[in-house]
Amino acid sequence: MAPLLCSGLDSAANCHMVSVIIPTYNRSGLVGEAIASVLAQQDAKFEVIVVDDGSTDDTVATLGSFAGAIRRLWQPHGGVSSARNTGILAAGGEWLAFLDSDDLWLPRKLWLQLEFLRKHPEFKMCQTEEIWVRNGHKLNPKKYHQKPRGYCFPQLLERCLISPSAVVIHREIFEAVGLFDESLPACEDYDLWLRIGYRHPIGLIDEALTIKRGGHIDQLSSAIPALDRYRIQALAKLLRKEPLTPGQQELTLQTLREKCRIYSSGCRKRGRVEDADSISQLFESWQDNEDQSLTSEMPEVASGSTNERQC
Hints:
Elements: E1 18-24, H1 28-39, E2 46-52, H2 59-64, E3 71-74, H3 80-90, E4 95-98, E5 104-105, H4 109-119, E6 125-134, E7 137-139, H5 153-158, E8 167-170, H6 171-177, H7 188-197, E9 203-214, H8 220-223, H9 227-241, H10 246-269, H11 273-288, H12 290-293
Parallel strand pairs: 1-2, 1-4, 2-3, 6-9
Antiparallel strand pairs: 4-8, 5-9, 6-7, 6-8
Helix pairs in contact: 7-9, 9-10, 10-11
């Protein structure tokens, strides 16, 4: 992809700014709180780009109340990946941060991340710990949700352990790995973290500075069935398209086979024998011929999740 230059800004010094990208779709009651939490950031230079993904509610009026403090971009409804990518391409900062329109930041979030990145130049990306809230009640993450640090590709294969709302990423990362995959209706973040994680270490701030709010019906993990099929597609694409080391290929293939097995088993329990057979045949062919595993296309599979973990 073409270099993501610090376009739209007069001074090269502005390239040290953080571009905060907030995608939103029909969340007029929440997006204002998200924006306010960004504007309350202390001791950090940033711009706020809100991408209205074709909202049909009162989002326009909500965003209008922040006129002069944010950049509002509108596009026809294309999904969260499309909205994030629109923000990335419009961003002027050297560093990029994302905030889902139902999440919040604590006031020192950006400053602490920028300080970490200044002191640890070997990292081009870092995230913070999170406070999880569902339907107004605080939740404690499970042990297997523990966020990784450093080179953590094996952990990222197993499950999505990075939250878009918690990260700050150098724009060079996107130049190297590409943008969010707009063909994936879900698990687009899992796909991106894999493409980043096999190349780069990931820093972690051991402080909960991001509030992740859940429980509303429009969340992707609630609204889109069969999330596992998109994880499978992301893994297959990684094997087909990325220059993984032999060790990374083997780890990815092991994870893909296990997820195919789980998904196939779930399909059989639900009477979707054809879907189960197509997945079973797929990873059996990989077992017989690993060269084919790097080029085979994923079959289309029907809806019906067998795994309740959020992407």
